[in-house]
Each structure stands twice: as structure tokens, then as C-alpha cells.
Design a protein that fits this description.
Rossmann fold, 4-stranded parallel beta sheet, 11 helices, 2 domains
Length: 299
Amino acid sequence: MSFSKTTLALGLAALVSTTPVSATNIVTSIKPIELVVKAIAGDDMNVSTIVPPGSSPHNYSMKPSQRRALEQADAIFRVGPDMETFLNRLLGGKEFAGKVVAFTEASSEETEAHHEHEHDHHHHNHGEGEDPHLWVDPRMALDMARTVHAKLSTLDGINTAELDANLERFEQRLNATEQRIKASLGQLDGTSLFAYHSALERFSEHYDLDLAGVLTLNPELSPGARHIADVQNKLRASNQPCLLTEPQFNRQWWRSITEGLNVTVSTWDPLATDIASTANGYIEFQQSIADAVLECLPK
């Protein structure tokens, strides 16, 4: 009897010491960050996202099961305090110390306000401070990937050689995709792009696109009459105007803004809803933004 118990104990010890990588639990706040993490973690590691497709990261209400997933996570990746404000209070708790990686810091004057008014204020830092939509810029995504690599390398039972190879592969694929996108977007010379909100700005800057106007500075609020009139005047005055809308937000009022104007409309998704969560997902996401912008070319 004692012999079989010992054998069982040895067998269990062997099991524990060869735990596969997938036993590592990573939680990310939004899908695009999940895609960057997947590029480094590979397809075997368990990576999940809190904010589901179709929901806004600015004012999401978490389920109890998601709170438990955060508590059990080995590492948590988020954009930062000005983006997923619903996480600020929870992740400030002692049990999360050392687990959380934020890619941006709070704009200092907002930090206190966030803690005070988290529930009545869906403040999303538009128009002041740093634009939090880092992930649409491939260079920023590469920086994020390096930060993910550094964090995952500190976790127990991780194959760091695999992480190194994944980071190198991601960088090579990203560079190749970036060159391809740059070449294709060169055709847009002379097209004036208008975006639903500032999420497209970093992509436009990176690829030297002409972003002539942004419809709303804060997607939670409808813009005022003066701002709408300004945008309409810009649309009228611009060459081949194209409006890039987003599936998460209300279509009704931008339809009324563009009524009677000759504007091409294309849709892109900054939250990468329809992109498969794989190691190649971020590359596909970059390409999907480029494809949406290329829809603006005169037919």
C-alpha cells in the first residue's frame, strides 16, 4: 500500500515539474493588447480579454467571473488609467502589486479625479495629455511587445528561448507588413480622411496620411453644433473626402452630418473584434486598418 502511495506521489511530482506553458494565465484588458501578447506568448499560453466585442473599454461593467480571472492571473496587461477607467480602483489593490503592466501612465491631474468619480465620469483622455490608442501604431506595438516579452520572461516555468524567438519573428513580420502597407497607402495621395474619433490619429501619423478632421473628441458624448458645422465645412472644402467610422459607435448622427455631401464612407475597427486571436493576429489587424483606408480610393 505504502509503495503505491509513494509511486503516486513521485508521479504527481513529475507532473508538477513538467507543467506546460499553457498553465500560465494572462489577462488583457482589450483585444488589440491580447493580439500583441499572443505574438510573444505564442498560441499555447492561455490569454484572455476582459472587454468583449461590441463594448466600449471606457465604461465597461465587469462580471464576477472576470474579477476572479484577474485575481488568478499571472500577469495583467492594460493600456493605462486614462483608457480602461473601470479597472483603476480594482487593480490598485495590494493583491495586484507586481502583476499589472500598464503601457501608459495617468495624466497627473486626472489621477485623483478618476478615483473620486470613476462611476459618474467615463473620462477618456481626449484632447489633452497623451493619445491612449497606442496599439494602432506598429512602432508602439513593437515597444509593447518588448515590454510583454520582459514581463513574461520573469514568470515561473516559462521557456524564454521560445519568447525570444517569438519576439524576433514578430519584429520581422511587422517590418515586412509595414513596408507593404506604406507602399499601398501611397496611392491615397490627394484623399482627405476624416475619422470618427481620435483612435486613427497614431496610424495616420505613422503612415503620413492626411487626417483632415476628427468628428468627435470624446466618443461617449455627441459633439456640439459648432463642431459639427466645422466638420461639415471641412468635408465640403476637401478633395475626395472619406469618413472612417467605427462599428462600436452610433451611426445615426454621422449619417446626418454627411447628408447631401459627396463623402465616401469606410469602416475600420480599432478594437480588432473580427481578428482571430493568434500569434499572427496583430499583423492581420494592421492590414485590416490599411484595407479599410484603401476603401477610400476613388472607385
